Amino acid sequence: xxxxxxxxxxxxxxxxxxxxxxxxxxxxxxxxxxxxxxxxxxxxxxxxxxxxxxxxxxxxxxxxxxxxxxxxxxxxxxxxxxxxxxxxxxxxxxxxxxxxxxxxxxxxxxxxxxxxxxxxxxxxxxxxxxxxxxxxxxxxxxxxxxxxxxxxxxxxxxxxxxxxxxxxxxxxxxxxxxxxxxxxxxxxxxxxxxxxxxxxxxxxxxxxxxxxxxxxxxxxxxxxxxxxxxxxxxxxxxxxxxxxxxxxxxxxxxxxxxxxxxxxxxxxxxxxxxxxxxxxxxxxxxxxxxxxxxxxxxxxxxxxxxxxxxxxxxxxxxxxxxxxxxxxxxxxxxxx
Length: 336
Prior knowledge:
Number of helices: 9
Radius of gyration: 20 Å
Low-confidence stretches: none
Distance between the termini: 23 Å
Helix content: 25-40%
Strand content: 15-25%
Strand order of the largest sheet: 4-1-5-6-7-8-11-12
Order of helices and strands: EEEHEHEHEHEEEEEEEHEHEHEHH
């Protein structure tokens, strides 16, 4: 098995100027896990980056995917990635969309650094390694494991700024749990969706959140500088009426995806009919995100644009990944 360290709180120690910064290597993280030797799991360890989660980039992750693919071509049966929790809900979804193999990729981290009482990094890393080594995790794509819960990358989100139980899956719950050192999977997603590994050209995709009283002037300032946009609307997908001329004009030029800012639940398609409602916006060319929240929707749109997908293909991808269109085909063929 391969353990890849990217930095984050799990690898942080106090710096000379005060405050924790990433400093521990992957080997140091692994060596600090009580009971790991007793599992009998052979580990290769790689320190790939040493950054806070907020500073990771798409280029870091595409490079990581390339490294993982090369390692999986050998005898590696699974991968564990340690990183900062700030961006796990997004980075895990990138890995999920770019990893097509049956071997699990399990992302973990920590909410308390190793210098704090009750540091959760060692327990999370041990649980992640056990899940990645389990046959139950095969063909599930990328998983997120913290606090002995197993989450699907497509569902998981960070719900609290400091709690060790911050990671939740509002739309469907965890896929399973780590029970007495064993991965127990209690539900599975309906399918897996993967895209080609992007090249050097990376589109710019924005995220704009609806807020009370916003007249759309700020929306006008960013919409001309992006290749795609996710709008996080109120409730089931509503925006202020003054936004409509801007969104109507822009949706004829670039793909605009409509998500909900609420953090759980779907964007609807036909319940409300007033100007700025989800039905009105879809009629103006916006693409509904289904059950994908705005952060996941932005990742899918970015990688679809990087694959030179047309507006129609992007809409088809969201219909499938959004989880509301049963049996909707994924517009990319499975990798050979």
